[in-house]
Design goal:
Blueprint (H helix, E strand, L loop, with lengths): L1 H5 L13 H12 L10 E6 L2 H8 L13 E8 L9 H18 L3 E2 L2 E2 L4 H11 L5 E10 L21
Antiparallel strand pairs: 1-2, 2-5, 3-5, 4-5
Length: about 160
């Protein structure tokens, strides 16, 4: 799976929309993520509205690039009805990684902007999108066609691998 080894965080995007078919494929990848107790705690908000993207760009000191992105997916975690509630964030993190990998595989670029576990950022995103109280904003993933791509760096560090034999 080349996307694992070529994915980089892309923060600048061309002014061109992302095709609906590609967005659907990204969402399908997100929902293919493993989930504790198969609870699938995620809800996804696909944002292409310029005003909403602008609001999201102000929800964190690190979210400025959302303003220029043609699209963003806000991954939310349900707060009710979960069998294994303590694992909701882990499940949403795995879904977010799948989003990033599919974005890469489709020739797009994106970046994860952490929202959780900071209540002020979670609340700012909830207010920007008028989220129901039953959802907690987990992360924002702006994406689109990259204006430029950073160089990928090999992060493999054998000193961090420990074998128990």
């Amino acid at each position: 799976m080349d996307a694992i080894f070529t994915r980089v965080s892309v923060r600048s995007y061309e002014e061109r929309p992302v095709e609906e078919e590609k967005i659907a494929r990204i969402l399908a990848a997100a929902m293919a993520a493993p989930s504790a107790c198969n609870q699938q705690p995620w809800e996804f908000y696909v944002v292409t509205d310029r005003d909403a993207l602008d609001k999201l760009s102000r929800t964190s000191p690190y979210a400025g690039m959302v303003k220029s992105a043609p699209a963003a997916i806000v991954v939310c975690c349900r707060e009710t009805g979960l069998k294994c509630a303590d694992y909701g964030d882990i499940d949403c993190a795995i879904a977010t990684e799948n989003i990033l990998l599919e974005i890469e595989a489709l020739g797009l670029g994106g970046v994860m902007i952490g929202t959780s576990p900071l209540p002020e950022r979670e609340n700012a995103v909830a207010a920007a999108l008028n989220l129901p109280e039953s959802l907690r904003a987990f992360t924002i993933v702006p994406f689109g066609y990259p204006k430029s791509r950073p160089t990928h760096e090999d992060r493999f560090d054998p000193s961090r691998v420990h074998y128990v034999r």
